[in-house]
Amino acid sequence: MSYQAHFKVWRGDAVGGGLADFEIAVNEGEVVLDIIHRLQATQAPDLAVRWNCKAGKCGSCSAEINGRPRLLCMTRMSVFGQDETVTVTPLRAFPVVRDLVTDVSFNYAKAREVPAFVPPADLKAGEYRMRQEDVGRSQEFRKCIECFLCQDTCHVVRDHEENKAAFAGPRFLMRVAELDMHPLDAADEMGVDRKRSAQEEHGLGYCNITKCCTEVCPEHIKITDNALIPLKERAVDRKYDPLVWLGNKIRRR
Ligand code: SF4
Ligand code: F3S
Ligand code: FES
User: Fold this and answer.
1) Most buried of 18, 74, 157, 222 (most Cβ within 10 A)?
2) Is the CB of residue 218 below 6 angstroms from any atom belonging to ligand 3?
3) 86: part of which helix (H) or strand (E)?
4) pLDDT the model gives residue 128
5) Half-sphere exposure of 11 (CA within 13 A, CB side)
6) Which residues, 6 or more positions from 205, have their beta carbon under 8 angstroms from its beta carbon?
7) CA of 147 to the centre of ligand 3 (A)
8) Which pTM value belongs to this model?
9) Region 73-81: what's the mean pLDDT?
10) Residue 1 has what pLDDT?
11) Which ligand 1 atom is the nearest neighbour of the CA of 145?
12) Closest by Cα among 86, 77, 98, 87 to 26
């Protein structure tokens, strides 16, 4: 069954913009991205939107729907009442390029700041052995589609541009956690201390475990419980571990 929906879509660019009103047909089974495409086809051919897979896997179509960060292609129209206005706006934490497209390069810059996995020097390819338990732990984090909805949601940067330099955000703190819990990562032999850098370079201390990032993750990754809290625990353990403390003292002499 079709019906006419009322949409408000943000139109504009880096200089400014506002919400534009549309009345548009909705068919059974459609998602918000279908409606945006219908708007492009029938009423607003220059409406900018980023998308690719329409299957919740490329992470491109992130936007905010009625103020909540979501994937346009995975949000069914049936979750809204037929007389409810559906408001679609660009991700709030990142600069607008045009309409619903934002510049997410902040995230790529943060990704580059996390040193890559370092394989153990004494093992050759094919000799790596890991317990299934360890594999399973990082497999959850590997489901990330880099939609950056968690980055957009986190209150540390959402309305605080000034925190961006010091805070990597949940997605990249999760990456640090994944590497830190990897049993074969030998980054410490290259002078990379992942626990220390989580605190001092990636802003782990800014996270006060509000779990908003976890709530919006379309892959249902338990970012806070399985990555951020364990990383905080390990970083703190280390800081207050008397042997580590003594070791650091001796090394500093
Ligand atoms: Fe998106 Fe989840 Fe990855 Fe964050 S952790 S970028 S919300 S898939
Ligand atoms: Fe932000 Fe998630 Fe921590 S929303 S404050 S990174 S738990
Ligand atoms: Fe790929 Fe939505 S278009 S996740």
Assistant:
1) 157
2) no
3) strand 86-89
4) 85
5) 14
6) 199
7) 8
8) 0.92
9) 98
10) 85
11) 8
12) 77
